[in-house]
Structures are given as structure tokens and as C-alpha cells.
């Protein structure tokens, strides 16, 4: 709780606050980096694209708030999007996305820069 008394330190050290306050340009850059990493491991097994989207902040005091964001949209070629999502939940660490219009969306706002390689590895495991 002491961190909240120092807003700049809180933004740097509390992941949720960092995600909520991150510049859209940084999110777009990370989405592009994530898409490039995914394209290397999925090959022809899935189509990957970067798209502008909205992040839902969720419960608590802001249940209806949406923030602009960027997502990596993944369309698997040989298995259903539900099966891909289930396989990703079983990887270590699990990768959780949301399904929209038969694509798995990974919100770059919620992927830390140091997690990009781990997410790509999870996709490699899920598609093997």
C-alpha cells in the first residue's frame, strides 16, 4: 500500500497500474513484436495479424471501462480456435486469450515485454 503514496513508483512496480497507463504506441509496438515471434513458430499452422481493439478493464470500480489497445489475432488452420485456446491453457505457463469471431485474441496490453518469448514458446508447444 505504501507504493500508492508514490504514484511514479507505483506505476513502475504494480503491473495492473502499468498496464492501465501504458501508451498506446508502446502497446502497438509490443503487439507487432509478439506477432513476429508467433509467425516464426506457427508457420502455416495459423494466420497471425495485429489489430486495434478495446481492452475491458473489468471488475471493481471500473466494470464497464474500455481502453484502446492492440491485439494479436490468431486464426488456426488445422484445429479449432477452441482447441487452440484449450491447449494454450495447458502450457507452462498457461496463455489465456479471448475468442472473438473464430480467432484467438491476445491483448498486448496484458503481455509484459519479457513475456513475448514465453508466449511464442507456448504456441509452439500447443501446435506440436
Summarize the structure.
42% of the residues lie in helices and 23% in strands. The protein has 128 residues and is an alpha+beta fold.
* Low-pLDDT sequence parts: none
Give the helix/strand class.
alpha+beta
Task: Give the number of DSSP strands.
Answer: 4
Distance between termini? Answer: 44 Å
Task: Write a structural description.
The chain is an alpha+beta fold and 128 residues long. The protein is 42% helix and 23% strand. The chain has five helices and four strands; from the N terminus they run H-H-H-E-E-H-E-E-H. A four-stranded antiparallel beta sheet has the order 1-2-4-3. A hairpin with a 2-residue loop joins strand 3 (98-100) and strand 4. Helix 1 (7-13) packs across helix 2 (15-21) and helix 3 packs parallel to helix 5 (116-127). The termini are far apart.
What order do the helices and strands come in, and which of them pair?
Layout lengths: L6 H7 L1 H7 L2 H19 L3 E11 L9 E11 L4 H9 L8 E3 L2 E5 L8 H12 L1
Antiparallel strand pairs: 1-2, 2-4, 3-4
Helix pairs in contact: 1-2, 3-5
Main attributes?
alpha+beta, 128 residues, 4-stranded antiparallel β-sheet, 5 helices, 42% helix, elongated
